[in-house]
Every structure is written in structure tokens, then in C-alpha cells.
Please model this.
Amino acid sequence: MKVLDFETIRKAAKSMNPSIWYDWVDEALRHKAEFVCPPKPRMSQADGDYFNVMPAMYEKDNVAMVKMIGRHSIKRAEKRSTMMGDILLYEADTGILKALMDAEYITTLRTGAVAAHSAFQFICSGGTLGLIGLGNIMTVFFMTLLSKRYDKGIHRLLTVKLYKHHDQEVRFAERFKDTDNVSFVFCDTYEDVIRGSDLVVSAVTRATENFASDDCYKPGVTVIPVCTLGFQNCDLFFDQVFTDEIEQIRGFKYFDKFKSVHNVTDVLLGRVPGRLNDKQRILVYNYGVGIHDLYFAEQFYHAIQGTEVEYNFCKEKYFI
Model:
């Protein structure tokens, strides 16, 4: 059995071209019907802490997975992230455990890459981006977006508006300062970030109210709320809503008021149209599906040697 811990996966990811993460997202979504992916149960705890349990199986590649991930505030001054998770990866036809893997880094990668994939699918022809919540997920999003733009030979200028918060905008701009054809603008308010932007991406993990009034959202804007927060007013007047899985957002407050809602997979497979013109306002709610965790975990499993350990499962009939 392999053990692939946080540092092992992080080291492997650093050597990769981020555009490959985009391709993994796309491949899994296109083959979504071939995965078994039950709804993820959530176990809520005090103070907003929780566990999410995410099972998935892909019999075509003979792999199955259970991911346990959750948010837990620091209780005893431990040196750890508030978000932690692990993946158990199995051989599907035997049930043999193949690997114990870190899930926190994989989750960050697939979440940011999914947002970049949605941006390419639904953005209009404009080049102004508004980014809110400039942590690790947003960094992965932007890395993947830039890498895929390069692959596609897109060189037009990007104006990127960053929300100012605890100098995150300074760190983010410094991280990408050597990128060609990118200009950063620092904004004091959410409305400054959103108004006039062709694409708005938010990775804010907590929000108690909407970020901006309706009139801030120009015709043609695409909004991607990575953590699904802060844009409930958009639910009521945007032209189209797309999602990684409709059943996971059916409980949203204004779900029944969406003008149009479709799975991204149906767009990729040509079953429904995506953006129809540069005037439509589009909202993309990717709630997170286990097929991406499984697909990313499988790719890392094959790419990394990892630490081999002896795991003595039952190999013969036994009696208590």
C-alpha cells in the first residue's frame, strides 16, 4: 500500500504544468455518467465545524475512493490547516486498499482547476476579471487559467481587479508579477471589483450578505462563486445557471426561481448550449463532486512512487 502525504503530493504538483489539471477536470466531467458518485453526506459539529464524506467509483479504471474532509478550527494551538482531509483509494474489483493519500492539497487543486475550466467554458469575449478571496484556491485558479491561455495561444491583455484584504492582493500580484499581458488593479470594495468585470470569481469561505447590488453586474458577466456564497441576488435575475451536479444545488433558497439551470457535462457533450451571446449573465455553481477527487487521486497515485507500507488485510478464512 502507498502512503502519499501532503508534502509528497505538493512536491509532485509543483513539477506539473497546471493546464494538465484543467484537462483532468474536463476528462472527468465528460465521462461523468461512467462514475458512481452518491451524494456526499455532511456531519455538522459545534462552531461551524464539519465533516464531509465523499465516496466515488470509476469501474472503467478499476478504482474506488472514500474522501473524508472537514473544517475544524484550531483547538490546542496545533500547527495545521483548518481544512484537513484524507483519501482511501481502493482497487474496485477486489476491495483491496491501494493508498492512503492527503486530500487537502488535492481538494485545493481540483477546486481551483474546476473554476478555471468553468471560466473558459462560459466567459464572454471581454478581458476584465474581478477576483475576491485571494487564497490558495484562487492562486490555483489563476495558475490554471494562465497556463491554459498559453496553451491556446491567447495573448490579449487581462485586466485583473483584486479585492484588498490584509495585503492578500499584494502577495497575489507579486506571485504573478512576471506574467505577460496581465495588469493588476487593487480595489477597496466588492462593488469596485465586480462593476465592469467580464468574469467575477470569488473564493471567500464566509459571507453573511450579498457582495454587490444587481446593477453592478454588467450584461455578459460570468460569475463563479467557488464557495457558493455572496451572490444570492444573482439567482433571481441571471439568464443561465450551470453546475457540476444539479441535485447538489436543488436545496438552494432560490433554486426554483432560476431562469435556466443545466449541468456543465451536458454543455461539454453538446446536449445543451452554453453561452448564447455576449449579453447573457451566467452564474456557475460548482458545489464539488467526488469524481474530480477520485480522478486527481488516481493520476497522482500513478505519478508518484510514494512510501510503500505493509498493510496486512485478511488473506485466508479465519475463526474468532
About this structure: The mean pLDDT is 96. The first strand starts at residue 2 and ends at 4. The CA atoms of residues 133 and 203 lie 5 Å apart. The radius of gyration is 20 Å.
